[in-house]
Amino acid sequence: MPTYRDEVVVLRTHKLGEADRIVTMLSRRHGKIRAVAKGVRRTSSKFGARLEPFMVADVQLYKGRSLDIVQQAESLGAYGADIVPDYERYTAASAMAETADRLNESEATPQQYLLLLGGLRALSRGEHASRSVLDSYLLRVMSLSGWAPSLQACARCGAPGPHEWFVAQLGGVVCSSCAPTGSARMAPETGDLLRALLAGEWDVVDAASAGASAASSGLISAYAQFHLERGIRSLSHLEAPR
């Protein structure tokens, strides 16, 4: 039988039949995987709890025609236990998992796996504000997918910045000459925060004001959803940054 092993993050699950589940996972080496986990909804299942959303596992799978089959699962990181009971962590993790699930197979790289893994680990530990972890993840996931926003030079004409307008449809910040009527104008602190979120400068991120955090979250949400070409449902359940 053609079998293989990989490390995975569980993105979502849904029921199949009376006792099975279809599990969607982002793996380190095989991209996105959809597999059947047989019998995991029974109380006697040995690895059902290891295949819940936000869990990290070492799995062995059998290669099927349309869906693979999970044969074994060993827990590597039980992040869900610390994420699910906290509303802010849960909604942020849900938005991250939903975004990862939108990746095309060519975009589901080892770097994407490690980025999601790091984000879930940070959420589970409460290292930073949950919305900030999500915002940093969204900026980075867009960059890894080839949609890196311009946050310094004008995205349209290349004029050196910083600039005060942000237009998702044009690729990021734009100068006053390129900004369409009605463009969102940023405070300087918001621009600094966007750059810090992308670079992982957490001392700057953690010290940002509530107003800058809320403004940057709105711009990042608009940018990510524009490039994904449809809304991220989980974002509607997020509370505004405080």
Provide an overview of this structure.
With 242 residues, the chain is of the alpha+beta class. It contains 7 helices and 8 strands; from the N terminus they run βββββααααβββααα. It has helices at 80-83, 87-101, 110-125, 130-144, 188-199, 202-207, 210-228; strands at 3-16, 20-27, 32-37, 56-62, 68-77, 165-167, 172-174, 184-185. The strands form 2 sheets. A 5-stranded mixed beta barrel has the order 1-2-3-5-4. α2 (87-101) runs antiparallel to α3 (110-125). The chain is elongated. Involved in DNA repair and RecF pathway recombination. Pfam families: RecO_C, RecO_N. This is DNA repair protein RecO. Belongs to the RecO family. Keywords: DNA damage, DNA recombination, DNA repair.
